[in-house]
Design goal:
Elements (H helix, E strand, L loop, with lengths): L5 H8 L4 H8 L4 H29 L8
Length: 66
């Protein structure tokens, strides 16, 4: 897997300044960055699944509409 770049991490975490992201994550070891990246990916996947479930429940299903 390709590690997230600092700029991408900034955008995903919605930090206003790159310096905030850099201070928090710039000095981490590669392994720590990978773990943080994996947690972020899992969070995004779970959020997407929940959103998908909400959408499925809110859209009425019709049969054979012509």
């Amino acid at each position: 897997k390709e590690a997230l770049k600092l700029e991408e991490t900034k955008e995903l975490l919605r930090h206003e300044n790159l310096s905030t992201t850099s201070e928090l994550y710039g000095g981490l070891s590669l392994e720590a960055k990978r773990r943080a990246s994996e947690r972020l990916v899992q969070y995004v996947k779970q959020a997407a699944q929940l959103e998908s479930i909400k959408l499925e429940k809110s859209i009425p299903v019709t049969e054979n509409v012509q």
